[in-house]
Amino acid sequence: MDSISEEFIIWTEQGAKEMAPAQKKVLQAAIELFAQQGFDATSTKAIAEQAGVSQAIIFKYYKSKAALLDKILDLVVENILPSYSQEMLAVVKDKADQNGFADFIRYIIGNRFDFMVANRSFFTIFFSQVLTNDTFVAKLKDELSQRFEAIATELEQAAGDQLLISGSALIRLMGSQLLVLFLETQRFEPNLDVRASGELDCVEDMVVRAALGNAVVSQD
Questions:
Q1: pTM for this structure?
Q2: 109 with 178: CB under 8 angstroms?
């Protein structure tokens, strides 16, 4: 099971005090099965069996499997993802000035790519909802916009005069390239090793060049 799913299960045990035990079991079973076999391949019958409840219990709380997924994603956005953005903010403050900003950009891209791959099941579902679910996107913006701005500000302060684009633009650029790499390795070419092929290096160089200029890349 990926780390996001594990943290979600821990949160339902420790932080969701208002939930009935049966509701917690349904949420825990659903995220486990979604992570193991995907959303489409998971039936409400399988979720009920995993949770040790009847399907009627699932439909008591959620009108459909899609509504159950929506609830899980909402809870992850509200209670799990903020800790990762806070962790990223701490990394920016700690590492950005240690080995130069270009190396820091490369570190972030490699680190976040590994994180996405380690949580591939969650991010496959997450990105599909980002592309198709306007309500989810609005919630995501509302919950994370302030943290996004804080990280962007920290990036600008860490880079100083080196940065040719805004911190927000740098985050969006890194995010878009990570999404392409993720889709390529998880959906189109699952056997591709982006490090051995040099593709990750190319992405890192492109982002560094856009953020800091051609001279930085040529010096490496």
A1: 0.86
A2: yes
